[in-house]
Specification:
- With 293 residues, the chain is α/β, with parallel strands linked by helices.
- It is 41% helix and 25% strand.
- The chain starts with a helix and ends in a 5-residue tail after the last helix.
- 32% of the residues are buried.
- InterPro entries: LysR_HTH_N, LysR_subst-bd, WH-like_DNA-bd_sf, WH_DNA-bd_sf.
């Protein structure tokens, strides 16, 4: 099974049209048809159903598509690692990080690292914690800055953020300097969607306080949560904002629970070595960031 033919199959599966796929690949239609026939002969089953002169990926084809994409990703990763090994001062670092780290922490890390290694390239991905870990496990990224600490990965704690309760200005709790989540048990909550690390931590904190939050809106970014709090939609558990980054229409109240914090850290696969450029970046992050286990 040739890698080129697997790549052709992926394009054909995405277009579901031989003529369109051949044009996109820059090969002739008969060449693509013969390659598909060889592939189907090798796996022993048809990979497409023929419907109204078009191709429709069937259940067998969906299985092969999943593995073909994984194989192509692994081969691309291998090529990148080999290229990086030939010159340790270059190469590609595929870094994933939480949306909330895009404002200052990650850009500052990249700025400082690039002063030491200006020729190393980066491929950057933002997402929720579960998305980052799926990409890490699947080989789409090398490193992830995430929270909470994931199981099954190498990990180095970087720093801890205190969590607080954001409430609208003028809210009945706004004058409080410290609060427990039990005091807000009857309030509507704005939260991140399930799968986000902060949502998991919020649910754990609420369970610890003996309340079940009534979530009225699920956002995908913390600034959206804070904006909705300011608009009066509810309250939200968020990290204590950095200076100059607070939502003007919200008040931030310290949470009394000692566990009201989230640890940010660097995660990487436990079952495969990092490419040299990624290893260099990881060591830089560990060396220059406060160690929190």
């Amino acid at each position: 099974m040739h890698l080129d033919e697997l790549s052709w199959f992926v394009v054909l599966a995405e277009t579901e049209h031989v003529t369109d796929a051949a044009a996109e690949l820059g090969i002739s239609q008969p060449t693509l048809s013969r390659a598909l026939a060889r592939l189907e002969d090798e796996v022993g089953v048809p990979l497409f159903d023929r419907v109204n002169r078009r191709l429709q990926l069937n259940a067998y084809g969906e299985i092969l598509l999943e593995h073909a994409r994984r194989t192509i990703t692994e081969m691309r990763s291998a090529t990148e690692r080999i290229a990086a090994m030939r010159d340790p001062d270059t190469g590609l670092v595929r870094l994933a990080f939480l949306h909330s780290q895009a404002g200052s922490f990650v850009p500052d890390l990249l700025r400082r690292f690039r002063a030491h290694a200006p020729h190393v390239q980066f491929s950057l991905t933002q997402g929720a914690a579960h998305d980052l870990l799926e990409r890490l496990a699947g080989g789409q990224v090398d490193l992830a800055i995430t929270s909470p600490r994931p199981e099954g990965f190498q990990w180095r704690g970087l720093y801890v953020e205190r969590l607080c309760l954001a409430v609208p200005r003028g809210h009945r709790l706004a004058s409080r300097s410290r609060i427990t989540l039990a005091d807000a048990g009857d309030e509507p909550f704005v939260g991140l969607a399930p799968g986000f690390g902060l949502r998991q931590l919020t649910e754990e904190l609420c369970a610890e306080a003996g309340i079940t939050p009534h979530v009225v809106f699920e956002a995908t970014e913390i600034p959206t949560m804070e904006g909705l709090v300011a608009a009066g939609f509810g309250v939200a558990v968020v990290p204590v904002p950095h200076a100059g980054r607070a939502e003007p229409g919200a008040e931030y109240i310290a949470l009394a629970q000692a566990s009201a914090k989230r640890q940010l850290g660097l995660a990487w696969p436990a079952d495969r070595p990092l490419p040299p450029a990624a290893e260099r970046f990881a060591q830089f992050v560990i060396r220059t960031t406060h160690d929190v286990e």
